[in-house]
Amino acid sequence: MDQSREHGRDDDDAAEQGNRDDLPRWLQGKPTKMNAPRAAKAGAAKPAPSVQPAGGGAAQPPGAAPGAIRPPAQPARVQRRHVLLALSFLLWVVGPALFCAFYLFAIAHDQYASRVGFSVRTEEVGSAVELLGGITELSGSSSSDTDILYEFIQSQQMVRGLAEELPLREMYSVDGDPYFTLGEDARIEALWRYWQQMVKVFYDRGSGLIEVRVLAFDPEDAQTVAAAIYDQSSQMINQLSTIARADAMRYAEEELERAEDRLREARQATTAFRNRTGIIDPQADIQGQMGVVNALQQQLAEALVERATLLESNSSDPRVADIDRRIRAIRGQIADERSQLGQESGAEGTQTGPNGQSYSGLLEEYEALQADLEFAEQAYLSSRAARDGALAEAQRQSRYLASYVQPTLAETPEFPRRWVLLGMVAGFLFITWVIGTMIYYSLRDRR
Q1: Pick the residue with more confidence: 278 or 164?
Q2: If DSSP codes are grouped into helix, strand and coil, which group holds residue 32?
Q3: CATH code for 110-252+400-416?
Q4: Which parts of the chain span the membrane according to its record (predicted)?
Q5: How is 400-426 classified by DSSP, letter by letter?
Q6: Rounded distance, CA 19 to CA 182, Å?
Q7: For 132, which of 100, 102, 162, 382 is 20 to 30 Å away at the CA?
Q8: pTM above 0.85, yes or no
Q9: Helix extents (H) in 314-417
Q10: Distance of CA 333 to CAs 148, 294, 330, Å?
Q11: Beta-carbon neighbour count of residue 184 at 10 Å?
């Protein structure tokens, strides 16, 4: 009987100890109103704890029976914070994910992709000798041309040019899909921003290949836009070739124009000299005058020989006087011819050439004009050769756009990628919810 009471008391103590463990730490060491009488009775009934010897085992805690087993913990109950946590998960993760799934699979329109691939090529034609053998070299263009084309396809200029040729705003405006279609703002800036989403350019810098992917809500519209992009790009490359050719020939053309003006002025000065003097070639005219002087000198020499012969045979020969008169006449004529060739124009008592100017002055002026004319002709020939060389070099290198993939016509919509977008949205929502929950519990534990 006493033993059963003792066991019952031990069970009550164990239950009380379990209830005390459930209390907060600052209440576990204080008796409450409910357990105060029981604690008093237990203190009165229990004997004083015995002291274990020094060499014995560990001391048992007061009021603990040997082999006592603590009762199991109370089952967890749903707290208010648990309900709020589940509600936040539904509102933050499940609700938006379901709305996104509904929009993607029920509202969003299918998008078809058309692809076109091309590369900028340069055809280098050889010289005239190489052309006889039909030698033509094909090579890729410099990276600068491809870089310019890559930026041009994504530029507002491309969008504006295509908007003038195609109804882009009507193609990308679809009712019932406010997110993936073009909005009501149809200005060029809004259209250009939307263009960045629907047109993607892939550029391989190693090979110089460009691939363009065009999205549209109709497969034929996507193919039409891709073909228009190729045409605009081809026009851009042709314009670059024209600009490069013009830059290469601009300096040569300017030099040729200056050489032509210089040659024209030199020829006009020579023509004015001939009209003023009446002499086509002063050098030829002087050579004629020198021929007259040479002939007179020959006659003078013959007359002198004849006079000397007569004087040796008969000093009183009346023919000597005639020969002397002829000699004086020849010497006078020679003096006149020489004075005409060597004296300045306008000198009194001298014989001059045409228009009152001596032949020496005419020859000096004519030689200066001839020097200017020859220099102008040489400069003109050099400039002409340089211009022809620049033109040949410009024509030797011809850029063009080579397409290795024609604009494709899609049969199956590829976009939007609904499952990928849904997974990304759901994952983002779940991660943000987890982070927010962890922040909440961290702040709660600090209080």
Answers
A1: 164
A2: coil
A3: 3.30.1890
A4: 83-106, 419-443
A5: EEEEEEPPP--SS--BS-HHHHHHHHH
A6: 68
A7: 382
A8: no
A9: 319-342, 359-396
A10: 84, 11, 5
A11: 7
For 234-261, letters b (16+ CB in 10 Å) and e give: bebbeebbeeebeeebeebeebbeebee
Q: What angle do CA 333, 337, 338 make, to 5 degrees?
A: 115
Any idea which residue has 């006493």 for tokens? 2
Distance CA 346, CA 351 (A): 9
Angle at alpha carbon of residue 85, lines to 83 and 89, rounded to 5°: 115
Q: State yes or no: pLDDT of 430 exceeds 70.
A: yes
> Token pair of 183, please?
């909005």
Q: Please determine, for residue 27, whether its predicted confidence score (pLDDT) is greater than 50.
A: no
> Using one digit for the tens of pLDDT, what is the confidence trace for 350-378?
445 555 566 677 778 888 888 999 999 99
Over the stretch 227-244, which tens digit does the pLDDT of each residue have?
999 999 999 998 888 887
pLDDT at 134 exceeding the cut of 90: no
φ and ψ of 53, to 5 deg: -65, 165
Return d(Cα 293, Cα 304) in angstroms, integer.
16
Domain boundaries, the chain: 2-45, 77-108+417-447, 110-252+400-416, 271-391
Segment (H or E) for 6:
helix 2-22
Q: Are 247 and 394 in contact (CB under 8 A)?
A: no
**Tokens (6 digits) for 223:** 């193919």
Residue by residue, DSSP assigns 143-197 as HHHHHHHHHHHTSHHHHHHHHHHS-HHHHT--TT-TTTS--S--SHHHHHHHHHH
